[in-house]
Amino acid sequence: MVSERARLLAAQGTPPIAAAHFRAQARPYHPELRPDGYLNLGTAEHRLAWDLLEPILTRPRVVTAEDSHYGLVYGTADLRERTADLLTRTRSVLFEAEDLIVVSGASVALDIAAAVICDPGDAIIVPAPYYSGFDADLTGRSEARLVQAPGTPETDFRISAAAIADAAGRAKASGLRPRALALCSPTNPLGQVHTPQELHDVLAVAAEHDLDVIADEIYANGVFGPTAFTGAYGLPDSPLPPERVHTVWGFAKDFGVSGLKVGVLHTTGEPARTAARELAYFAPVSTDTQALVCSLLADTAWADAFLAASRSRLRESYLHLAGLLDGLGIPYAPAEAGFSVWADLRRGLPRPGFAGEDLLWRALIDQARVSVLPGAVFHSPEPGWFRICHPTDPEIVAEAVKRIGRVLEATGRGDVTAVAAQC
């Protein structure tokens, strides 16, 4: 016998992002050894920084008895202090170690934030398109409901205070209590950086509707465009009290160590912070892993130089992908940060609507062996947009985009069966 909750979880199956990732990783492309392998541009992982990380992560280090014993479930004092220093240094806003909760990944931090803020049935407003992990991360334990605030292609899907206000109104009209606004900044999948004015406007809406803000800022140090990153916490003249802004960050993206699973929740208010510490009991990071991460942060000059080099490589990687898309006449929303481009593949839809998008996605992954993710995964307001990730081998990116172009050519003619022969 299992609970009704267990049956529902089993019925959900593996999330699409995870399923596509493991499928592509099981048989990766190699021009000579596996030309029929998968070209993975669907996973948002930083694969361009290992040469910088390897000397630090593989060097001999002293392991103490403390590194094998129980530690504070919400993070060792050393890691929280070093992380607070990093956040303060990179954002020019004071972060205190006592306000940080370290857990096993940013997904857990999001889960804890939502569980601390929301009761079952409350509404969380989310600008769309949005990172699909929010569907589970923000609702799995809290049992809140996500209400979308969609952007439009005409504005490159940029965040809109008016859309957020409208979503809050719709939630109330349907009998839900809007309780929080979830922001992703820089955004995933779009790679946009919210300006201070945009943040001020949406925080004003949050204040008007009595919403807390959960700010997923995991790409904060991955900004390579002209707009400087501004965090939701510590925003000058913020309309929302600081204790109602809960920031999520982690080492997976900015430091390229996604497999270490170290996430951070920053929250200053009580009892939210105390409750978050209690929930951290269920997802602590091993003390040895925390010691390893401390070794990344111990040399602040190295850490700052690493982040600068990483941003430079991300910019080169983005420009490489953008140039390839330009060469094929594939439109996209300009990105300023992160690991992905939001590409407009609507011309290749073999039929209208999200059914056509699904057919195109299946042609890409089943026949062309290119893993990119369709807009439906990110709750795109319009079918035909795909997330293409770029921080990987440039030759892999070039081959994948070439195949995408061939698929668009074939599906645009209505000849989906020709895809396999061309790729």
What is the CATH architecture descriptor of the largest domain?
A: 3-Layer(aba) Sandwich
Broad shape: globular
Ends distance: 48 Å
Order of helices and strands: HHEHHEHEHEHEHEEEHHHEEHEEEHH
Query: Helical element count?
Result: 14
Kindly provide the name of the CATH class of the largest domain: Alpha Beta
Helix content: 40-55%
Briefly note the CATH topology name of the largest domain: Aspartate Aminotransferase, domain 2
Structural class comes to alpha/beta
Strand content: 5-15%
What is the CA-based Rg, rounded? 21 Å
Q: CATH H-level name of the largest domain... which superfamily?
A: Type I PLP-dependent aspartate aminotransferase-like (Major domain)
Uncertain segments of ≥5 residues (pLDDT<50)?
419-423
Tell me the count of domains.
2
Q: Strands of the biggest beta sheet: in what spatial order? A: 2-8-7-6-5-3-4
Compute the number of strand runs. Answer: 13
Give a short account of the largest sheet: 7 strands, mixed
Q: What's a concise summary of this model?
A:
Helices cover 40% and strands 13% of the residues.
What key attributes describe this structure?
2 domains, globular, single chain, Aspartate Aminotransferase, domain 2, four-stranded antiparallel beta sheet, 13 strands, seven-stranded mixed beta sheet, 423 residues, Aspartate Aminotransferase, domain 1
